[in-house]
Every structure is written in C-alpha cells, then in structure tokens.
Amino acid sequence: MTLKVDRIEKVDGLSGIDTDYVIGGAARFWVRAFHVGIDESLNCSSIVDNGTGDYTFNFTNAFTTVNHSTVGMADFNSTGSYNRLLQGVGATTTSERFYTITAGNGGRYDSGRLCIHIQGDLA
Asked: Which of 92, 123, 118 is nearest to 28 (CA)?
C-alpha cells in the first residue's frame, strides 16, 4: 500500500505542513556510539578507529555530494573530562571522518560517547 500526499493537516483544518518539509527535514544519517561501538543508528554501517580521537563513520547508503550538513557532539572520556569537541576533517559521499579534541589545548582524545546527525540528499 502506498500513501501519496502533498500536505498534512490537523483534524481541525486550521494548520498543516507541506510534505516537502517533513521529507526534506529528516536526518539521512544519525548515530549514537560509545567509542567505536554503535549503540543505535540510521544509515551507519560501521565506525573505524583510526587512532586516538580519530574516527571514520561509514554510511550504508551514499550521499549525492560531500556537501552535506553535519552536527555532532563528543562527550566525556574515561578520565571524566567533559570539554570535548567534534571536528570534521574529511567527508566523502560514503563516509565522514572526525577528530574528538579537547577545547583547552586541541589535543585528540578518545571520547566516551559520540552523537552525529547528517542532513543531505542520498544518492
């Protein structure tokens, strides 16, 4: 069964939204990982540990270009330090590479939890 609609409206008919916003606004990739173990994800086939604080996230389905929008966070590490940043260092249509760094000195450290969301068109 296929449902085809151009607009979704509330029962009272007073407000609604075009389906382009719903479909276009959905994340095409997201992952919640602990170090290199995938906890939950969408479109994440694997994570590669390239070294201390250096991770590559591989996509199950490719993006059309490398110009997708990424947002993410890096959480605490084993020492309990919470000042971690996620730095994108290389994107392809099939993967994206990140460093987890310390805000104070920019040094790379393994992070306890990583959360990443990517918006863009899939191939």
From this structure: 118
Q: Are the C-beta atoms of 69 and 60 separated by less than 8 Å?
A: no
Please list the alpha-helical segments (H only) found in the chain.
Answer: 19-24
Task: Indicate whether this model's pTM tops 0.70.
Answer: yes
User: Residue 45: pLDDT band by 50, 70, 90 thresholds?
Assistant: very high
Task: Report whether 102 contacts 81 (CB < 8 A).
Answer: yes
d(CA 72, CA 122): 19
Structure tokens at 55: 């991770």
The span from the CA of 65 to the CA of 122, in Å, is 8
Q: Spell out the domain ranges in the chain.
A: 29-119
Asked if the 29-119 domain carries CATH number 2.60.40, the reply is yes
Q: What is the pLDDT of residues 52-90, one digit of tens each?
A: 999 999 999 999 999 989 999 887 655 655 667 888 899
Pair 121, 66: CB distance under 8 Å: no
